# Entry
Amino acid sequence: MKIALINENSQAAKNGIIEAALRKVVEPMGHEVVNYGMYSAEDECQLTYVQIGFLAAVLLNSGAADYVITGCGTGEGAMLACNSFPGVICGHVEDPLDAYTFAQINDGNAIAIPFAKGFGWGGDLNLEYIFEKLFCEESGQGYPRERAVPEKRNKKILDEVKKVTYRDLCDILKEADRELVKGALAGEHFEEYFFAACKDDRIASTVREILG
# Structure
């Protein structure tokens, strides 16, 4: 699995801490971590939590990433932004139990973590425990297990509803404020990482058009 890490500007200084915890947990599992930044508070590309939604949607819908780890001060804004787009199911995760139940019940492809609220002594350990429980088992198996059948059924229903209630991603990218979208895709290593991993030619073409 290719896991993308995205930080917005208010919590960019924690990018190194988050990346280290993520790599420590998931690389021994055989997963790959791709850090899309922000890498520091001084980065030229300053991502807002709204722009996280654009970037996460591009990565997930194109197949450039299989999972997105993101967040903001409370995690709420990043979650709302991600869930504004098709092809993204983002959970708000504060602790390992949130991580496990979201993975097993909701079977999503992104989480938003509060990187300021409650992030004090032991914050790095909490991140490790979150990532351990998020990826410790194949997702979507249900919790408790006797609830697996209705939970999987509800997930399929949600997927079908989202096909109706969300617009085509390429149309969204083209019709949204051009500078807002361009800024979301302006990270230092975005083009290097994205185009090497993108599996959708139409999304790749749209991104190239936006970036000029």
